[in-house]
Amino acid sequence: MNTSSSPQLYHWFVRPKWFTKKYIHDQIQTRFAFNGKVVLDFGSGTGANCSMFQPNHYLGIDPDAGRIHYARRLYPTHKFLVLENGMLPVDNESVDYILIIAVLHHISSEEITEYMKEFKRILKPTGKIIVMEPCLCRKKPLSNWFMNLYDNGEYIRKEEEYIQLFRENEFSSQVINRFRKGFLYNELFFSADLR
Fold first, then answer.
1. Which residue, among 103, 114, 97, has the nearest Cα to 192 in the 3D structure?
2. CATH code where residue 158 lies
């Protein structure tokens, strides 16, 4: 689905609640505890993931002002801000978790490197980045073809390419799971922390 679609269409057709719960929330919540932890949802879009977190410890950011305004209407107790100038509106070493769900495949490696500087700045020394992204697989050419056709993300990467991006920016990564989302999307779920 085109990410430039209206926020309402995106929220209801690309990220319906049942789908988000099954393929994203259930995966994450069985592996991480967020009580009292500060979470930055990088690329929060319409706010579909905010329900996993306490409102007073959550900040969703996205460059798309339309999606941020829509998220604010849907989830008025959570905080959402428009990302401007690539700067994260967060104090140094103040975030426990950065959540990145289906965002990196829309961003060039050069842009990700710039964001990584911000991630390093805002993460607490014990902080983690939680990442879930569509992933190209050598042994799944049909899935790869489908993802490239259906998803307008220009940078769907192989597993090793995602991990290398983090390694080059002084993060060590741990693959948590590889799974199929829906019928043909291959997903890579991993965490990263500063070395």
1. 97
2. 3.40.50.150
Alpha carbons 154 and 178: distance in angstroms, whole number: 21
pTM for the structure as a whole: 0.90
pLDDT computed for residue 80 by the predictor: 98
Q: Which residues 6+ apart lie within 8 Å of 54 measured at CB?
A: 34, 35, 36
Q: Is there a domain that residue 82 lies in?
A: yes
Q: Following DSSP, what letter does each residue of 85-97 receive, concatenated?
A: TTB-SS-TT-EEE
Amino acid code (one letter) for 12:
W
Percent of the residues in the chain that have a pLDDT greater than 90, as a whole number: 74
Look-up of token digits 């339309």:
66
How many structural domains are present in the chain?
A: 1
Q: Which residue has the higher pLDDT, 139 or 77?
A: 77
Residue 119's SS3 state is helix
The average confidence (pLDDT) of the chain is 90
